[in-house]
Every structure is written in C-alpha cells, then in structure tokens.
C-alpha cells in the first residue's frame, strides 16, 4: 500500500510539473507568488546560506532580481540547493523555475539539454590551488599530481585537455560530488592540488582552517562564462530573466543605484527614464509592471553593487572586477539598451 501511495504522489507531482511547464513559467510564478531558484550547494560569494538559513551571493541576487521584476518583491524566492550533478535535471523536470548556480555556458549544454542560457553574470576561468608547502609556482610543475575535482562540471574535460596539451603531463583525479567535499579532501591531503573556476577557488580557500597556507596559481586554463539558465522554448520567461540581468548592467552604466534610484526618477536623461519605466518601452512588453526595473534596482541594486558586496572589495573574497567590469571601464560586461 505504501508503494502504491508513493507512486500516486509521484504521478501527481509529475502531472503538476507538466501542467506548469505547459502554462509557461512566467504565468506559473505569478500565480504561486514566488520564484523557485536552483542555487549552489554552499559557495561563499555566489550562493551560500548563513547560520539562519538566509541565502546570499551574486547568483542569489540574480534570483532576487527576477523576483523583484516579476512579483515586486525580491524576497519572494524559494531556494533549492543543487549539486553540479543535480542541477540540469532539476531544471528540466520543473523542480526549479530557473538555475542560477555558477554554471558555464557551453555549446553542449546550450544545444543538447533542452535548456537556454539567459546571459552571463560572471566571466570566469579555471585555475589551480595548491598548498604553499609544495613550493609550486606554476601549473606546469604539476606533472604526476593528484587533483581534487568536482564531478559533473566542465573542469574535468578542461583538466584533461590542459595536461595533454602541455607535454602529456600525468595526473590522478580524486573526484567528489560536492564543492565542500573537494575542499575537505584537499585539506586532508588526499590531493596535491584542487582545480575549479578561479572564483570558486577563492570561495573555497576561505573555508580552509588555514587559508594562508594555500595559494592560487596564476594560470587560467579555460573560458568559463557563468550565467542563469532556463528551459528552452519558454520565451516569455527567458526574456524576463535575460532583461532582469540587463537591467542590473544598464543601471550601473547609467549611475542608478539602490541609494539614488528615487532621486533619479526626476532625471531628464531619456535612458534613465526608460530604465525606470517612465517612458516607453514599458513593462508590458515583458508582461511585467512598469516599475519592474525600478524594483530590481531599489531592492537588489545595480550590477556593481551586487558584485562589490558579494565577491568584490566589500566581501571576504576581495576579487577584483577585472574582465567583469563594464565595457566602458575595460571589462566585458555589456547590456543591450532598454529602448
């Protein structure tokens, strides 16, 4: 009887998920009153819960921006912690409405999983972290090393490619399911080096009992454009997620912040007035309220604000903006105009 009941529950959940997908995520989110967002399994600066269970981070703020745009309240988000192996299945099945979990945009993922990347919220690259005691100064000195790595990530193939391309260096992979397991394995001496996206290395380094004993090597061996993901074929929802991110970037470029956004409502600048819903195009083109971008900026901030407090100078990570600066300040961050 218990098995029959369990099967009935699974069938009901499957039917409910199918109904939600058929209806369209934007309408579903409006009806249920929250965004179900798939995030990481504990990565400081990107998606990490505090002692009270409150989630913070750069990826978390993308979820909050979407909630502010759609529902007028950045706090109307329910977070689902997902490992790298779980994330795509959770989105495909409808368990989450969107994925915002330090996920690299690649051809295979974009073309074969039934998913679509909505943009890039952080440009990254894979690197290596080693113990200072090893005396290693370059990744090219790692021949024969044991390497801690997380399964289900792009880092596995990148690692193999790098070692093969540099004289056929040898290594042994020590594979873990979660980022926490990789850093514990590294600290316990199960491997000589830990490899991941550089942003993740800085996040994992502060989890070490003695962070000062580890060093991130200078080499960056791959391109890792990270960004939110939605289901393919759901255009209205895809556009909402994409333009929520574009609003964050356009706000920074226009100098509109969470602190001055109310004052900027008086601005004669047409770009600012369009951003804040005072002139066409207004929110209706996205199926949203005219204050959709105002709500994002007021409640979450612009891209510069969320970068600084989560991973930049105002955070424990102290990561330089680098290529994540705006295009007009030497970086790659560039958003299409709101007009």
TrEMBL record:
Gene3D superfamilies: Periplasmic binding protein-like II. Keywords: Signal, Transport. Residues 34-264 form the Solute-binding protein family 3/N-terminal domain. Pfam families: SBP_bac_3. InterPro entries: Bact_solute-bind_prot3, SBP_3_CS, Solute-binding_3/MltF_N. Residues 1-22 form the signal peptide. Belongs to the bacterial solute-binding protein 3 family. PANTHER family: AMINO ACID ABC TRANSPORTER PERMEASE, AMINO-ACID ABC TRANSPORTER-BINDING PROTEIN YHDW-RELATED. This is Amino acid ABC transporter substrate-binding protein. It comes from Aeromonas bivalvium.
């Amino acid at each position: 009887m218990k098995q029959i009941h369990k099967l009935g529950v699974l069938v009901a959940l499957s039917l409910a998920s199918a109904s939600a997908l058929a209806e369209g995520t934007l309408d579903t989110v409006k009806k249920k009153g929250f965004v179900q967002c798939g995030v990481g399994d504990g990565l400081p600066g990107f998606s990490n819960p505090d002692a009270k269970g409150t989630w913070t981070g750069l990826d978390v703020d993308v979820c909050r921006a979407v909630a502010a745009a759609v529902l007028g309240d950045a706090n109307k988000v329910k977070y689902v912690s997902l490992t790298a192996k779980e994330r795509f299945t959770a989105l495909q099945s409808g368990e989450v409405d969107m994925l915002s979990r330090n996920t690299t945009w690649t051809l295979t993922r974009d073309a074969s999983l039934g998913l679509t990347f909505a943009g890039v919220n952080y440009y990254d690259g894979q690197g290596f972290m080693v113990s200072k005691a090893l005396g290693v100064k370059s990744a090219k000195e790692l021949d024969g090393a044991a390497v801690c790595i997380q399964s289900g990530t792009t880092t596995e193939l990148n690692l193999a490619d790098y070692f093969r391309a540099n004289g056929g260096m040898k290594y042994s992979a020590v594979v873990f399911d979660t980022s926490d397991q990789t850093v514990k394995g590294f600290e316990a001496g199960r491997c000589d080096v830990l490899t991941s996206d550089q942003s993740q290395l800085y996040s994992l380094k502060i989890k070490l009992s003695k962070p000062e004993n580890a060093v991130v090597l200078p080499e960056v061996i791959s391109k890792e454009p990270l960004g939110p993901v939605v289901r393919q074929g759901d255009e209205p929802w895809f556009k909402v997620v994409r333009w929520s991110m574009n609003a964050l970037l356009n706000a920074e470029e226009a100098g509109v912040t969470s602190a001055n956004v109310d004052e900027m409502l008086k601005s004669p600048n047409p770009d600012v007035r369009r951003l804040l819903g005072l002139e066409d195009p207004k929110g209706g083109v996205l199926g949203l309220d005219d204050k959709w971008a105002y709500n994002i900026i007021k409640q979450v901030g612009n891209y510069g604000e969320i970068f600084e407090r989560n991973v930049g100078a105002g955070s424990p990570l102290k990561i330089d903006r680098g290529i994540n600066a705006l295009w007009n300040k030497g970086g790659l961050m560039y958003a299409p105009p709101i007009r």
